[in-house]
Design a protein that fits this description.
By secondary structure, this protein is an alpha/beta fold. About 15% of the residues lie in helices and about 35% in strands. A seven-stranded mixed sheet has the order 2-3-4-1-5-7-6, with helices on one face.
């Protein structure tokens, strides 16, 4: 389906303590601002987002239009096409991107166990 870059977005209690912990596991900051309570960290192809006070639970995140280094890719499926395909497959969405828009957008769904999945296109 070409869902884009994949990461886990973690709901953390103390972003600085979490940053230090994941640095000990070999992750380094890729983007974000600890002062704004969010950081994206990377170790090889593994990407995690640390978010303090932004999510209630951990979230699996797909970013159409980005690679694992958060760099834009030339060809990608627009988030609205992905949303339409999932709806055609019978998947219920918690939130939707407006179909008559262009550019950035996001939608969210739950897997059978209640895990949140976010599709978040930044371009």
């Amino acid at each position: 389906m070409g869902s884009g870059a994949f990461s886990i977005s973690l709901a953390v209690k103390d972003i600085r303590a979490s940053k230090e912990f994941y640095e000990k596991l070999g992750f380094s900051a890729l983007m974000g601002e600890a002062e704004q309570n969010w950081l994206i960290m990377k170790n090889g192809d593994a990407v995690i987002g640390l978010f303090q006070g932004m999510f209630d639970k951990n979230v699996m995140t797909f970013n159409p239009g980005w690679d694992q280094d958060a760099k834009e890719v030339d060809q990608y499926r627009d988030i609205r096409a992905i949303q339409d395909e999932l709806k055609e497959r019978g998947i219920s969405l918690l939130s939707e991107v407006q179909p008559d828009t262009e550019g950035p957008g996001s939608f969210m769904l739950l897997d059978p166990d209640g895990n949140q999945i976010l599709f978040d296109q930044h371009r």
